[in-house]
Amino acid sequence: MNFESITEESLNLALDIMNSNPTYNMIENGNPVRTIKEVRSELLNSTTNSYLIKKEGRTYWYR
User: Distance between CA atoms of 29 and 49, rounded to whole angstroms?
Assistant: First the structure.
């Protein structure tokens, strides 16, 4: 298992992962789809550390 910091270059991958669960998005923020602006603000900021987890050919995100 590898952890990779989310960067501007990998932000679209994180967006795809986050938008793969519209039910969770509805519960979390009332909208089934997150925008790139929302994801950038949430994952690329000075107060959180956000990672992509790569395991056996699959990628996940973690904050």
Answer: 20
